[in-house]
Write a structure and sequence with these properties.
The chain is of the alpha+beta class. It has 2 domains: about 60 residues, Ribosomal protein L9, N-terminal domain (Ribosomal Protein L9, domain 1, 3-Layer(aba) Sandwich); about 100 residues, Ribosomal protein L9, C-terminal domain (Ribosomal Protein L9, domain 2), CATH 3.10.430. It has 7 helices and 8 strands; from the N terminus they run ββαβαββαβββαααα. It is elongated and about 115 Å long. The model has no long low-confidence stretch (mean pLDDT about 85).
């Protein structure tokens, strides 16, 4: 039987689409649940406007998802956690914490269930995909550093040094030193040079 879907149906089609399904599936499941109607000529005329409206709303939704993906792709979120010398965390960074930090940093509110990752349990740099649908999976960069290193790590990052979480776990690692402040000029250096007329006058006086 040919039916017109009234809502998106996994593996069958999207709302407004005319699809062929088994008669029993249509009569006993789809039609009673108002998920589809039989594709009669009059029904097809009536649903054409609905189909166009659905397509317009779907296009708008896809554009919104594309914009969202561009906003969050490559965003780095930094967490400090208590950790052993091996890099194992005493605890974890959860998907809810990632979603909350993303909201704080970018004002983008993502349901934690869209974050394709179990809780993170090691110091390091982690690439975490976010499932937005329509094959869109922007990637977040989750950086986890030992809790006691976090203040200096952030300070060094703010100075423009791209130190990684992996580097600070290496034995003997030292943070880059801040640049030396420029030397104050001496009085001799600060004194203005005589101009040409002053040099001529000095020579005549001598």
């Amino acid at each position: 039987m040919q039916v017109i879907l009234l809502q998106d149906l996994y593996k069958h089609g999207v709302a407004g689409e005319v699809v062929k399904v088994a008669d029993g599936f249509a009569r006993n499941y789809l039609i009673p649940r108002k998920m589809a109607i039989q594709a009669t000529p009059s029904a097809m005329r009536q649903t054409e406007a609905v189909r166009k409206n659905v397509e317009a709303r779907r296009a708008q939704y896809n554009n919104m998802l594309n914009d969202l993906a561009r906003q969050i792709n490559g965003v780095e979120l930094i967490f400090g956690r208590r950790a052993a010398s091996t890099g194992k965390l005493f605890g974890s960074v959860t998907t809810q914490e990632i979603a909350d930090e993303l909201d704080r940093v970018t004002s983008v509110d993502i349901n934690r269930r869209r974050i394709s990752q179990q809780a993170l349990r090691e110091v390091g740099t982690h690439e975490v995909p976010v499932r937005l649908g329509n094959e869109l999976s922007p990637t977040l960069i989750i950086t986890i550093v030992p809790e006691d290193e976090l203040p200096e790590f952030l300070t060094v990052r703010e100075r423009g040094f791209m130190v990684t979480a992996e580097e600070i776990m290496i034995d003997g690692f030292r943070y880059p030193e801040p640049p030396e402040p420029p030397e104050e000029p001496s009085e001799a250096d600060a004194a203005p040079m005589p101009n040409a007329e002053e040099r001529v006058a000095e020579a005549a006086a001598g």
